[in-house]
Design brief:
Number of strands of chain A: 11
Number of helices of chain B: 0
Mean pLDDT of chain A: 92
Mean pLDDT of chain B: 92
Radius of gyration of chain A: 13 Å
Radius of gyration of chain B: 13 Å
Number of helices of chain A: 0
Shape of chain A: globular
Order of helices and strands of chain A: EEEEEEEEEEE
Strand content of chain B: over 45%
Strand content of chain A: over 45%
Helix content of chain B: under 10%
Number of strands of chain B: 11
Largest sheet of chain A: 6 strands, mixed
Largest interface: A-B, 19 and 27 residues
Helix content of chain A: under 10%
Oligomer: heterodimer
Low-confidence stretches of chain A: none
Distance between the termini of chain B: 32 Å
Distance between the termini of chain A: 37 Å
Order of helices and strands of chain B: EEEEEEEEEEE
Chain lengths: 111, 113
């Protein structure tokens, strides 16, 4: 079983749609959680950290359920510029500061 | 933007050859990690250096090796290249404090033919 698993995608949605990505992780010792965004042939960039209480950044909302080892990302009012691959990422003290990435879910927003 | 620069940006090597990829980090960023991202996959952790010593390694064979230098630059060396080594290689740096942001370089695209 992979350490971090994500919805396979791709997700194809119209502008203005709400889309949700799901992610599960296998290591219960995981302590830090992130969503990264990666544009085609570019480096990953931090979208947001994910906290147990849930957190929101504009149109983006992230949730963490430690009991279920589940992370989600909700994007409201999708824009064309949201088209990218979204990577679920975890880190545990056992792994030092190494990040464990999921395979990524591709989002395509069309007009 | 991130202060992390990688070179070369693209290169093509032949199976069996050796390659050295370079990374230059921000001043004060004494932790550097390298990741391999194959097409359609997420980045995979190769190894990490802290103050010029390797202090973490992923599931990669010994032919993947690295160096970190006092001037915050680092290298990834891969010997005996295989076709499956074709990937984007990403360098990431941070200042070593837990919780601080990790900064990725734009990566080096390696194609092995």
């Amino acid at each position: 079983r992979k350490e971090v698993e994500q919805d396979p995608g791709p997700f194809n949605v119209p502008e203005g749609a709400t889309v949700a990505f799901n992610c599960t992780y296998s290591n219960s010792a995981s302590q830090s959680f992130f969503w990264y965004r990666q544009d085609c042939r570019k480096e990953p960039k931090l979208l947001m950290s994910v906290y147990s209480s849930g957190n929101e950044d504009g149109r983006f909302t992230a949730q963490l359920n430690r009991a279920s080892q589940y992370i989600s990302l909700l994007i409201r009012d999708s824009k064309l510029s949201d088209s990218a691959t979204y990577l679920c990422v975890v880190n545990s003290r056992q792994a030092g500061t190494a990040l464990i990435f999921g395979k990524g879910t591709t989002l395509s927003v069309s007009s | 933007e991130t202060g992390v620069t990688q070179s070369p940006t693209h290169l093509i090597k032949t199976r069996g050859q050796q390659v050295t990829l370079r990374c230059s980090s921000q001043s004060g960023h004494n932790t550097v990690s390298w990741y391999q991202q194959a097409l359609g996959q997420g980045p995979q952790f190769i190894f990490q250096y802290y103050r010029e010593e390797e202090n973490g390694r992923g599931n990669f064979p010994p032919r993947f090796s690295g160096l970190q230098f006092p001037n915050y630059s680092s290298e990834l060396n891969v010997n005996a290249l295989e076709l499956d080594d074709s990937a984007l290689y990403l360098c990431a740096s941070r200042d070593g404090t837990v919780g601080n942001t990790i900064y990725f370089g734009e990566g080096s695209w390696l194609t092995v033919v």
